């Protein structure tokens, strides 16, 4: 389907907005009136600029407070409208959005509103302009799409239809199924916006917190399915008022925006929404009315091949010490780069002493700079990532080395697609074997794999990052939750593949204090899975590394709220092991001390079908890391 974006969704001048929309690959834009009025170029030049960039101007908006007024006001409103129709001729756009009257002087008289909109459409027709009537959620008298359609139907003019905006409908709990009652050709325009569920005034919610489909709490797939079911064939257009987007790089926002539409179209395509719509509309033998662009399938059965930690030499030493205490051994050296392979079972950590600042938004001493993801079909994964506008990272073409495709996540973390399976892992041949022994060789305390990775995100890119990982890697997000760290509130959202092979937990400071709360919420971590957490913890302690100290109060609370045997609780206390339980199973986990205020490790043991991350313990962990720093 045609993809558009409202200029109000992007920051910058009108020209910058157009350039960003075009660069991301949009087909068209909605020009927001304020952007045009403030632009230093006449409408004709805007039209030429858009055309040169390959963008159509699909909509001009908004025209406010038109209908349901007294007769004198109607004449003034029609005069104002004619001036806009003239302007639209110059802009080369044929659809004007008229939003329902929000003024206190509007009269609640449907017949009057219908008659006045009929006059507006009559005035628009000679200009070749269509009027799309949109019910604002806070309209004075018309605030539902059902009502706007009743009035448009009553007005009965070929140049008058409705504009549907998902925010105005879903924010009030409207039922989108009724959209199917509207003839598709009367839906002149579709605006899509998601939003997090917030209990707040509708106008404030709409003007500040909208986000792209898939980033909030609304079901935009279901919503759009109903719009297609009505027979709509126009653009999918994003109209997102958002405080962060207004202040962010418009190129990045536009790519994030297009990614959200790609995912939405793919989801609809996978369920056969276009074909089903045609059948519902009774033209089952005809071709579907719209084409839904599909993405290559997401990776299946993906898992971690490795996680790369970059640290300069003095910091690398402390990372090595912790890995060794966890039973890792240095088992290989990269043939051409200063990168060491450390592993224990299928848990592999690459320790790189290249500059950790290179290509990464995090400076600092030690940092997770890359995730190696093992997938069945790395080429397909890279192709999918490319279609989702993931920036491709250049690979050095060293003929002796395996070439892995890599893309950059929004926080700068590189994501490598590694071939999996038994004859995969050829990238391991890039490492000359070291003869190092696992220090715990002979003790039966293996870590089995990487369970999850925790990545702290810059505030402005949290939603972008979760959409990125979700779409590129085919992960499913959990609900986001808030954790009260000693230095501030941290929002956390985990994403996982269906079989749990890939899990990522994203954290962000709720107030956007990116890096100073580091000891608490701002760190990154790698969590390793094991089958016997007590053995791993005790071997680590025997190796001279104490786990992160958890206060006795925690264990008193554990005694109060669980039936864990006293001896088990005591052993947990000695080893700093925390506990969580769900209907599906149990979770035991402990942490290492913080390295360089930035990085720590976790060891987890899942029993039964537990799929969480011990969120109940997150605040205790953050307070414990803070206490350790204060000591
Ligand atoms: O917030 C507004 O005023 C506004 C204007 C135009 C729209 O299409 C809309 O959804 C909201
Ligand atoms: Mg709208």
Automatic annotation (TrEMBL):
> What biological processes does GO assign it?
3,4-dihydroxybenzoate biosynthetic process
Name of the top EC class for this enzyme: lyase
The record places domain VOC at 449-593
Query: Which reaction equations make up its catalytic activity?
Result: 3-dehydroshikimate = 3,4-dihydroxybenzoate + H2O
Positions of region (Disordered): 274-295
UniProt keyword terms in alphabetical order: Isomerase, Lyase, Metal-binding, Pyruvate
Q: Where does the chain bind a divalent metal cation?
A: 134, 165, 191, 239
Q: Determine if Transmembrane helix is one of this entry's keywords.
A: no
Question: Which InterPro entries does this chain map to?
Answer: DSD, Glyas_Bleomycin-R_OHBP_Dase, Glyas_Fos-R_dOase_dom, IolE/XylAMocC-like, VOC_core, Xyl_isomerase-like_sf, Xyl_isomerase-like_TIM-brl
Q: In which pathway does it act?
A: Aromatic compound metabolism; 3,4-dihydroxybenzoate biosynthesis
Q: Which residues bind Mg(2+)?
A: 452, 525, 602
Claim: Isomerase is one of the keywords in the record: yes
EC number from the UniProt entry: 4.2.1.118
Per UniProt, what is one GO molecular function of this protein?
Answer: metal ion binding
Q: Which metal ions or organic cofactors does this protein require, according to UniProt?
A: a divalent metal cation
**Where would one find the signal peptide in this protein?**
none
- Pfam families in the cross-refs: AP_endonuc_2, Glyoxalase, Glyoxalase_5
Residue spans of biased composition, Basic and acidic residues class: 274-286
Role played:
Catalyzes the conversion of 3-dehydroshikimate to protocatechuate (3,4-dihydroxybenzoate), a common intermediate of quinate and shikimate degradation pathways.
Report the family membership: Belongs to the bacterial two-domain DSD family.
Q: Which HAMAP family match?
A: DSD
Provide the protein name: 3-dehydroshikimate dehydratase
> Species lineage, top-down?
Bacteria, Bacillati, Actinomycetota, Actinomycetes, Streptosporangiales
